[in-house]
Every structure is written in C-alpha cells, then in structure tokens.
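call fold(seq) -> tokens
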Amino acid sequence: MKKLYFSLTLLLSFFSFAYCGDGTPVIESIDGNKITTAGFESAFDTALDTLSRTQNIEKKNVIKFLTEEESKVPQSFLQLRNEFRKRKFFDRYHEMMVVKAAADKSGFSKRSDIKEILKFQEMQLIYGMYIAEQIESRIKITEQELNQGCQELRTKYKQAESLTLEQCYDAARAQIKGRKSEEVYKSVLDRIKETVAIKHNDKFDLEKYLDKEFSFPELSKEEAPKAEETKAPEATTPTPAPEATK
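ret:
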C-alpha cells in the first residue's frame, strides 16, 4: 500500500464543527458550540470517508484495518490506526474545536490571507476526490482478474501465501485498481474538461508569461542593499584665535 500522507489533524481540518439540536446527549459546549454524541460520531465517519476517497482505499478496508489484529494491518496504516482510536480521536477533535473557537474569536479565520489558504486547500481536496470518483466509475474488475492477481501475489511475495482468499483478493484489487487508474486518468481528465467552457484570451501571450520566473517581493526586500547610515560630520580643528598685536 502506498504511504498515507493524511494525518488526523488534516482530515479534521475540513469539517464543519457545529452540531446543535440533534437530540443526542451533549458531551460539552465550547463557546456555545455543542459537541454531541451524534456530532462526534458523524465527524468520525466523515474522517473515514475522507481517508477512503483521498487515498483510494475502499472504506470497508479502512474499517477493517482499524479493527483487525495489528499484525494484519499494513505498516503504512499503523500510525493512522492509532489516531482513529475512539479516545485519541475525541481528544484531537476536542482540541481542534477549542483552537478553532479561539481563532474565530480573535478574527484569525476572517483574515484575507487565511481565507485564501483555505480556498486553495478546498480546491485541492475537491480536485483529488472528484477525479478519484470519476476514475472509480470507469474501473471494472472481474473475478478472473482478481483470481489471476491473487495467484501472482502468492507467487511473488511469500507473505501473501498466509493470506485468506478474501485478503488476497483485497490486495489484488488494490493493485489492479492502481494500475487501471493510471491507464484511464488522462481520458477521465479530458472528459472532465469537456464539461466546462474554457475560453482563452488570444491577446494574452501565455507562453511568454510562463517563460518568466516568478518574482518574490519578499526576497527582493531581503536582498536590497541597506541604506548607508548617515555619517556625522567630522569634527574640525578649531582655528586658533589671532594673537593680539603687541
């Protein structure tokens, strides 16, 4: 399995934190934002769904990795497995609720630079999830392919010999899906582009613009020579008074 880059903090950072009036017990209230049992459990489920979509792992396998014996869990999933334990997940969820409340109160969340960062992160997340979903709809894996993939895994990797048929099929499915995803990626992206209207400005020389490297005002300021300090005028030797005429 590929390395998992998402931490629990990053997963939680995309959530809406307020859950009010859902009729379930209130665990606590932070600046008027109630943490209810339903809200907490919904956040947990959303985190699982987000991980599944962004890392291209079936949700049932994510759940399986959380509940199976540690020896059966892929090494790359062990750290996230610990973060998804109920108590650890709640502690992080509560901590982020507190920090978000403080950030909102201080006006941090309304700052234009922070809004731009959040907008860019949202675009990245939607990009990844939407393409993954479109690719998923194009991929079909037959029983014959799973059987063949399982046999190849057992032949190539000795540890695969101890897997149950279901586990072997899951591993084979992940490999086949990864390969097919690469094969259909470009055609999926081309089809997505066909669904939107793209109008180029013929008066703008894009190639010329892209050939020029970015300029960084911050760097220019750092490299600018410091203004020479104004020197104090040198002291002059006073002219002696003329001697009195004798």
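The two ends are 109 Å apart (CA to CA).
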